[in-house]
Here is the input.
Amino acid sequence: MKSILNLENLTISLPHKLCFEDFSTTVYYGEKIAVIGRNGSGKSSLLRMIANIANDASCSHVTQVIEGFSERSGGERFNESLSEALGQNPDVLLLDEPTNHLDIRNRKSLIRMLQNYHGTLIIATHDTEILRNCIDKIWHIDNEKIEIICAKFDDYMNELSAKRNAVLRQIELLNTKKKAMQQSMLKEQERSAKSAASGKKKLENKRWLNAVFDLKAMGAEKAHGSKMKDIDAKKSALSDQLEGMRTSEIIVPKFSLPCADSGKKMLISIREASVGYAGKTILNNINFSVMSGERLAITGNNGSGKSTIIKAIIGASTIEKSGDWNILNKKDIGYLDQFYQTLDQEKSALETIVEAAPNWTHADIRKHLNDFLFRKPEEVETKAKNLSGGEKARLSLALLSVQTPKLLLLDELTNNIDMETKNHIIEVLKAYPGTMIVVSHDIDFLNEIGIDKFYEI
Here is the structure.
């Protein structure tokens, strides 16, 4: 097999952390490689580095968030960039989260293209369908290193899960053993105390007896302490093993997104409406309403006008609209768009929340950020522009929850987030008691968060 790229001792260090170091491998023509890992692990940075150092191979790189074409949807932007990339007939095609903005039809088309693609493919993705059907090798970025797995994704995940469960069982057995030893020691101490008291009453003149009991107790405590240290050492070693097996599905972030009670009433009513840009109508005959507590999904093909409706609801100045729009106060609406434009890119996570909650104490702000997984000083002090897509998603949710909205508008929320974050966000939104309007192509996600009403364009 012909080699197409030789990577030697690659290291990526971002302003606030080390992603990985000393990664070396050879990439062969025709290989289909997936780069997986948690948000912020360095997947996008690795693709950019490969694009810049591939001297002997032509590379086409389609990035995660595509600039330009401002009036086009994310899916349209991706298709435009992918067509341009394929037109260059590259030796290596680099794709960064390509299914993020695609509707169902375009997503299936992309997967067929990837399955039939004859060149070398390196793709950063959390998409399990792509991982299962289009990939023959995995680069897993974790714990500041890259592991190369020459196996199918499901086989790798099943093996990892089995190993992890075995280690968890061992830890549980050690915990049980430790608890039994502690109970045994307490009983032994009680017996020793009773024996000493009894002996003291019967033989008050033989003070040496108390010393004997003390020596026995000391010996028992020493042996107990040695066994406990041995258990703790074994648990520490097993915990290290667990850390090495961590996948993007294992960590459980702790979020909090409570909602103010809005009472049962009409929040949105749109009748005989249209939306567009600069004199160009995108969509006519818009008719739907949303009651408090309802969960509405707006679905349709890329470019059909889904995001445009959302922007019209929040009163974006670039949107032209006509018809009858009855919408609750803007201050009661929370909005998260797929490009995280609600964030000031020059502000850190800490500065973002300080500005949103000026009356909070520093401790309250750090606790709030901690709930959204911004824990280390370097994490809370990093500017938004230097955060990964998933980190921006978490910061946007943290910002939304400072003043909980009555209506939550979510535009392709599952784009740019890893599996662990997606799974927990599902749990957060399932418990969220407020009203939601969601734009998403991810049918499983919509089902999980309890969408009870659809408006199809």
User: Anything to note?
Assistant: The CA atoms of residues 21 and 80 lie 34 Å apart. DSSP finds 13 helices and 16 strands in the chain.
